[in-house]
Design brief:
Chain lengths: 253, 253, 253, 253, 253, 253
């Protein structure tokens, strides 16, 4: 089974960390391939950046999905997820969606704990997009700032653990999602100290992708997720433009 | 990884079919163990039967969960699921919950297609219990009756396929769940003829159980899903009574 | 008019208190008969216990409903209520459901004040089961513990009154439900000191049962609450098994 | 116990019918007093008429509530209900609210069957006002017209029974409310022919009023339903103006 | 274009302030005409007063709408709005509805900041009536009292600004509505000091009325907002009674 | 007042039609400037195309908003709306959002009538994004196809009028939105034949933009819609990249 991991951020070290953390979430028969965005921003943090990153995700999936049994968009907030599900025939999931639905199997309500207030508007929109507002107890962020997005999970470890405790005791969360690609791997490290189960969004997304790959659903031929017919495009270069135009893959380039 | 499959119906042949169909949903490193209820009804179809079956499921999990990494309750409608999640520390899922959350990764709205009208009240309650009313486009059942619950998926195959088509075209379903343990395996057989992706609830539940087992969440120590403290019991025999009493496993028998 | 009061807890003194408090809630033409569970737990406090108690409630109704015009399940959380409504033809209500719908006639939002945090998950589920989440302002419990469930309403009287005040002033509750069978009778005692109207769940349940008995609704012959057809049972002894099997009342014993 | 029945329509014969039908819904210790509006419209059918009728209901309650233990506003749609609950200290209910909450004790979803399409906008608003949209399966009205609002329950009896059947079988209603004061008494007459339980709104309102009177809730002293302080009024004559001004009852006249 | 502004309060100085503040909200081609209620209360603050004021608003619109292209009911809480929309063929809006829908174009969630706790029940009902509960982050009022409703916007200016800040930072409001006719004009004065955009409800209502007037929608001929047919009335004097009766305008007087 | 109209489709003739139809919706003091996308697709019809078009809308606003008092995104479905509201300080609205909130001032429920089934998934998402699911009675499309998107409003005029009738009579719509830029102007042409009021989305959007411009809200300085801080970008050319980077406008090119 081949899983394709698309990182729509331009930070290659984030991709590396994700690949390193993926091992425990993969069955023995799974092969993971990861790609990092070659344009965009180092770390998506606003909805405007997510609008752009969603197109970048589509470009990357268009370029690389041919061999994949399932695709994971490796950003919490899920840029491009619904358009990708509409456009491509391979199953696609993403970190927020997968984490939240997984959390629903561990309790009635989840809280989302993340590391920066600027992310919360986007993360909150992802809750609504998934139709899970009633299941989200709270979104919590530390008061403290941090120096490096690469090290933020270590810098703020105690704060994030403390917020987990408060989410459980004050907000009624049964389970906590540690959200944001830079927190990948943190859940495994602090699980024993947390008072409720934790969800690592990348682990959840890889798990859901494997489930979908084994389920091998046939693509929709009617309705909201059937692939749109061919469309003339201008100024949409590369494999994405070609895929939208139903043209040979190299045609749009 | 060891997955425990609990069939709270008394039909051993249904358990056999489930085990036979499980293979394609399991990773190479997964060992599946299945048990059939030794008391109750042959096939749970009402909420009163589900109330009783929920206790039977708890009894079975109490007796058999010691070695398991995750548990699947093998009945659509999920008898005993929430109490089991509260009572035991191993991750537990069930067919309706798992199928519906899986369906949410394939589209915005799912329909549930099943084989008997008597099941719909119970299945509808399962949608609400999961908090997914807004995602459920419809529950559809054939007009035709059937002779044998064992053969119903063959007897009604064309009707069920036709209802799938109508759920997609008339109700706006993006994905269809073929619900009810007797339909296990049908999705794989008719997928190529369906116009939208199908979800086999057993495959979904086994997939989610594997995901949960790999995630290895720590049990909740506070809140809605922390294990209740010891309680004196009377007339609740066997391992279940002992577990509630926090007594040695043989004590209650 | 005959009202049957079923206490699915095994505490006979709780039943006695309920009967003693019932007088002011009954019209002159009502005869109340009460039964205490002979197996189960002394005081139901978790959803696992409620799963079991629901079956016990069904057993007790099966044994005793023949002469009743309406049935009250005497536990807040309503174990077995929906299955009982499906299974039996006599009107059935229970303390949480009745209290919440009664509260809705006194204000737009109610709060639930109870005496132990372990009860809140179950009570919260009862709010959702009744479809009244939007009407529930809060569920509040005292910080203090207590020595005896029999005396808890006296031990914590000031705390419960103070929480009522906070529910009204901080949470926007228009009315407060004093929930849990051990609080039966407390509302009458502290009503004059409370700043919003109080609902005693037993009084509410007896009132709704009388209303239903006078309304004398015919049993549903179709749909979600029509009595299920006969079903073979094994290991479900006594009148309940017989009722499910549509067998003579003594047959299953 | 004294129940005050306020008919905000100007049709005295409708009041008479309501009083005649009330007997079976009243306990032996209840005394019912009824008043008919002396201004307004013969039969309220629009929301503009209901706005006016709400004031008339307040005027009537202001004039007559002194001796009452509970008040019933005798119009389905509940003109003036929430303002009356805020303004007066006696418990007040009305036909739509009481019927719908009663219906919730008989099933998960109710349908409303009434006799004229012009009523449906108002009745639908009453569902939302009660917060029960999710419990309302449908509102159905006959295609046929009628000659006399006094006889409409006989003229359209077969149509209304047939709509009840369709509400149950097509819309999934577990219980049907026969709505509109002119249908008072119809439920009792056709109950045996209906496939699901029926609710007579007047019987429900009288039952809820008795429950509230026995519960004897203290008036709210804070919050949404505390009586507003004194207010200068002009052009609001009679007991209502005096009550709002906190003036002696004759002062405003 | 002619806009009719109806003030259902009896305070003429409030009407004057509203007219004075209207200028910046009106296009050059708009003529505004304003009327003050001649009966009722000086300042509507409860739902009982709003029930009465709604009838007064209908009376005033009946008397003055003949020449208008759109009508604004100049009270936050919108007394008589839905009945007016049903009864008259000219577009009608009101301050709460218009402010809330305008706020939705500036952010996902609004808070309502007003000057007296007694108003909040009514204002909260207006949120629900508009179907916008999910968009309302909070309703906040100052702890401090005030001497004069005419000067309240100056007396409490700092408190209201501070509540705006808290609504944004603590409640997650993207935009704040300064609600209540006495606050008209405050938004313009403090906008530069507020950390989120402010909505002045009168400015919003006048803007929406102009939009509706330019849109020139045809009156509904079917459904919930078609004008009701003629109805006999008694005790409903003046143009309103005549309009309901479909009688000549002077007939009812 | 200057309103900027951004057409994210590449069809210049659609822009021309929109400008031609705009006159009746504009006050005398409004100057409208319109731009057509120079890359993308001729007519956006899927969510993948909308993802791309959202970026194109952001590019166009970045390039042209300097002089505008308000911006209208001229596509129903509102590509880029929320990101634009976050990113830019000028008020921004779009055709779906503006039409739906305007429709809410004309009735309780609207239906959306459009010309092609492929649009409905996108339009339905716009309903949810606006939080107005409860207000949307239906989305209806003709069975018939059409030859030219430019002429579709004439080709299908009778079908669209007929669907309006059905939306009102069968779905309970109080008002109908004729959705999709190609239908601009149709509402004015068929209004007299429709049984409920119609909303022209462009007219609504221009009206709301004027309202917002006159309201002159200050930009949010905190929360979900405060402008994000500077961000390094790569491969995001032109004014949009510069704006995100907080760089001089020409810097990113």
């Amino acid at each position: 089974m081949r899983i394709l991991l698309i990182n729509p951020n331009t930070s290659a070290d984030m991709t590396e960390r994700m690949v390193a953390c993926a091992a425990s979430a993969l069955a023995p028969d799974v092969e993971l391939t990861a790609f990092t965005a070659t344009r965009g921003v180092p770390y998506i943090a606003s909805r405007a950046e997510a609008q752009i990153a969603g197109v970048i995700a589509l470009e990357m999936i268009a370029a690389h999905h041919a061999e994949a049994d399932a695709v994971v968009i490796g950003a919490y907030g899920d840029p491009g997820l619904i358009p990708a599900r509409e456009l491509f025939e391979v199953p696609v999931t993403a970190m927020a969606e997968a984490a939240m639905h997984t959390a629903c199997l561990l309790g009635r309500r989840f809280s989302i704990v993340t590391f920066s207030r600027t992310l919360t508007a986007w993360y909150e929109d992802a809750v609504s997009l998934a139709g899970l507002d009633a299941c989200c107890a709270s979104i919590r962020v530390p008061e403290a700032g941090f120096n490096s997005v690469t090290d933020v999970q270590h810098e703020l470890e105690d704060d994030l653990l403390s917020l987990t405790e408060r989410a459980a005791r004050e907000d009624g969360a049964d389970v906590v999602i540690l959200a944001g690609a830079p927190l990948t791997g943190l859940a495994a490290r602090i699980a024993d100290r947390a008072c409720v189960p934790l969800v690592d969004p990348l682990a959840a997304a890889l798990g859901q992708a494997q489930l979908l790959a084994r389920l091998a659903p046939r693509p929709a031929r009617v309705g909201r997720f059937a692939r749109p017919g061919p469309k003339p495009v201008s100024g949409i270069p590369g494999p994405l433009g070609a895929w939208i135009a139903h043209a040979p893959a190299g045609a749009g380039e």
